[in-house]
Amino acid sequence: MSLGPSSTADEIIAHLRSLGSEGNLAGMARFGIVTEAALGLSNVELHKVTRQVKADHPRALELWQSGIREARILAAFTAEPKVLTLEEARRWADDCNSWEVVDTVADLFVAARFERELIPEFAADEREFVRRIAFAMIATAAVHLKKEPDATLLSWLPLIEKHAGDERNFVKKAVNWALRQIGKRNAACHGPALALAERLAASTNRAARWTGKDAVRELRSDKVLARLGLDQSRAG
User: Fold this and answer.
1) Which element (helix H / strand E) includes 108?
2) Cβ distance 1 to 49 under 8 Å?
3) Per-residue pLDDT reduced to its tens digit, 71-84
4) What pLDDT sits at residue 56?
5) How many angstroms separate the CA atoms of 63 and 165, rounded?
6) Which of 51, 57, 102, 130 has the highest CB neighbour number within 10 Å of its CB?
7) CA 65 – CA 234 distance, rounded (Å)
8) pLDDT tens digits, 150-190
């Protein structure tokens, strides 16, 4: 089947089904990917389909509604950030049940510039995958919002500290990811992020302690210090 910008959601889903691989599903499951509604396509294959079909926001909404893992990732790839509404973003967040879908929509939500509204809102949500979106958005923003003032990123450190004690695996890893990405953003962000990492490393809470120690290890690494133009004595 040949795909193009005019392809419908049904045509795209049929194409995805034709490419599905049962053999890939077991590998996905080993990485904690929910496979009950998966076809077994890699993100490399989905990026190829994205290049063929291009962005189309109404169609992206239809793809998401299918509930199929690959269709939902493709929906995030082909949705239009400038058209996406906060309510659509919230509905998608409600549906998330896998970390990789979370991380894909987090990129879209940051591209839509919903970080100010959704990061505190989603961090306060008790659902594991919705809370993960908040910290995946912080990690994404730290890397991609290069013109955003550092103060914005640093203002999220208290949120990281507040939820560092959440021991659920997919939250814990996202909190850690967010802290490390802020610390690696530039020299100005490194110091405050490292200071928080050191506090967390001394915590009596197991999740917070793991997050802190892991972040300290990376933020003190020669590679990170060299990239940011810092020396060990200054970082200490």
Assistant:
1) helix 99-111
2) no
3) 999 999 999 999 99
4) 98
5) 36
6) 102
7) 51
8) 999 999 999 999 999 999 999 999 999 999 999 999 999 99
Contact between 72 and 52 (Cβ < 8 Å): no
pLDDT for residue 23 is more than 70: no
Q: What is the token pair recorded at 217?
A: 């290890």
Query: Are the C-beta atoms of residues 123 and 165 closer than 8 Å to each other?
Result: no
Mean per-residue pLDDT, 50-64: 98
Left (φ > 0), alpha (ψ -120 to 50) or beta: where does 82 sit? alpha
Q: What are phi and psi of 210, to 5 degrees?
A: -65, -45
**Euclidean distance between CA atoms 211 and 70, whole angstroms:** 31
Output the CA angle 104-101-173, nearest 5 degrees: 85
Closest to 29 measured CA to CA, from 76, 99, 92:
99
Give Cα 208 distance to the centre of its chain. Answer: 20
Please give the angle made by the CA atoms of 128, 126 and 136, to the nearest 5 degrees.
50
| C-alpha 151: how far from chain center | 21
Residues 6+ apart with CB under 8 A from 81: 108, 111, 112, 113
Query: Phi-psi region for residue 36, left (φ > 0), alpha (ψ -120 to 50) or beta?
Result: alpha
Q: Is the Cβ–Cβ distance between 184 and 228 less than 8 Å?
A: yes
| Residue 216 near residue 183 (C-beta atoms within 8 A) | no
Burial zone of 233 (CB within 10 Å; 0-12 exposed, 13-18 middle, 19+ buried): exposed
Question: What is the percentage of the chain residues whose pLDDT exceeds 70?
Answer: 93
CA 170, 28, 110, 6 torsion-angle sign: negative
Neighbours of 220 (CB within 10 A): 18
Which residue is it, tokens 């973003």?
89
